[in-house]
Amino acid sequence: MNTLLHSVNDILWGYLLVGALIACGLWFTWRLRGVQFRRLGEMVRLLTDAVQPDPTHSARHISSFQAFAVSVATRVGTGNLAGVATAIAIGGPGAVFWMWVIALFGAATAFVESTLAQLFKERDKSVFIGGPAYYIQHGMHCHWMACLFAVLITVNFGLSNNSIQSNTISGAMHEAFGWSPLLVGIGLAAMTLVVVFGGIRRIARVSAVLVPLMAIGYALVALYVVITNIEHFPHVMRVIITNAFGLEQGVGGSVGAAIMNGVKRGLFSNEAGEGSAPNAAATAAVSHPVKQGFIQALGVFTDTLLVCSCTAFIILISGLYSDPALNGIALTQAALSAEVGSFGTTFVAIAIFLFAFSSIIGNYYYGEANIRFMTSSPRVLLSYRLLSGGVLVIFGAQASLETVWAIGDLSMGLQTACNLVAIAVLGKYVFRLLDDYLSQKRQGISSPTFHRNQMPDIADDIGCWE
Predict the structure, then answer these.
(1) How many angstroms separate the CA atoms of 53 and 59, rounded?
(2) Cβ–Cβ < 8 Å for 87, 312
(3) What separation in angstroms does the CA of 94 have from each of 261, 307, 325, 411?
(4) Residue 282 φ/ψ, nearest 5 degrees
(5) In the chain, % of residues over pLDDT 90
């Protein structure tokens, strides 16, 4: 069974989806005239203004920053520590360069999918709800495809990914402190259930605290490593660039291995195009859909150019990436310990806990948003909460998850395929929204607004934006 799943995943990801994701990133970058580069200052400005809900909405709504924090919480997970290490070990230092490249172009894809999530979002009591299932339903009028996406993302993020994250946490805690995986799983499940039973507002508040804490803390440690080894930094950058183009091959061998592992790690890490972050983007209360598109594009940069780069620099400065016995999280722990002493192992364990726990609660919400798309039954939602936040967290803390990883990769691949078809078809609306936003900015309007009557051809399909 595992062999078959791995073969299907190799074909799906190795030959089809990586190319499709790159093509979408390049197409949207060209069609939007490099908006992720030209409007970087606007992204940062909007994020600093986004700590509170938009004044045109109730204070009970989710702020733009909180929605950003939820999406970054799911992006920034164990893959940023273990996945980058694996990419370097297999693809060589050049994989880091291609990881950066795919993030730069993937930000355009993230902008498109998150803007669409805002355009086609719906009201759910006192908060907004949306995502690919909703814009497939209302934008493409394809109910079966919307339901398929909802099932796939629920299985992938709400169920299998939470087992993977809890497994990583329990492994790190056992390695650093000798704690029992079962007890870690029970404690983690209790914490998760306390958060998720508070709904999206509690998830958003917790994420808004954890995300800055973990990202800034990890970046400061990486900055310390770089500064104390500043004489080696030019060499590290030279190794990355030369290996990226095959001018000087290191560990990992060929330039093809560097490109493939860098691209796959970047895409798996920042999730641009997978259709996950739009579920969080839709919850934000903003005055124009493009605002959250800008902020979510910045999330791709935060994940890959900041957090993944921190891991890469620590590993490359240590020089331990050439040791064939080290891979994954063990390589990251060994590299950091080599630079800061035994504190490194403990710090990585704490970082993994923060990264993975924030991913668990964010992953849970992605499943909830799509459960609500399919049914309003309180019993189904309660069962999902107990299964995702309790049973599978405890199971994952103890289990060997090779099959769960394989199922997760397959559901993620199919979910990504659904989303790419949708944003390719519906991207035309984002082009119009961006033109409208920039037109208002040129007129001197500091905070552009949107009304669904501005798009009369699809006004009946837009559930909000009266």
Answers:
(1) 6
(2) no
(3) 9, 17, 20, 29
(4) -65, -20
(5) 22
Q: What is the pLDDT of residues 388-437, one digit of tens each?
A: 778 777 877 776 656 666 666 677 788 888 999 999 999 999 999 999 99
Cα–Cα distance measured from residue 71 to residue 66, given in angstroms and rounded to the nearest whole number: 9
Q: Which of 35-49, 91-105, 298-312, 451-465 has the highest mean pLDDT?
A: 451-465
Q: Which tokens sit at 451?
A: 């009304």
H-helix segments, 120-142: 132-135
Residue 116 contacts residue 434 (beta carbons within 8 Å): no
Helix axis angle for 343-374 and 378-386, nearest 10°, is 160
What tokens were used for 265?
């790690």
- The whole-angstrom separation of Cα 250 and Cα 415 is 35
Contacts made by residues 167-170, CB under 8 angstroms, sequence distance 24+: 167/396, 167/397, 167/398, 167/399, 167/401, 168/78, 168/82, 168/329, 168/352, 168/356, 169/352, 169/353, 169/356, 169/357, 169/397, 170/396, 170/397, 170/398
User: Cβ neighbours of residue 209 under 8 Å, at least 6 residues apart?
Assistant: none
Residue closest to 26 by CA, chosen among 116, 106, 114:
106
User: Is-contact 398 175, C-beta < 8 A?
Assistant: no
Torsion sign across C-alpha atoms 343, 348, 351, 357: negative
Locate 252 and state its tokens: 């990992």
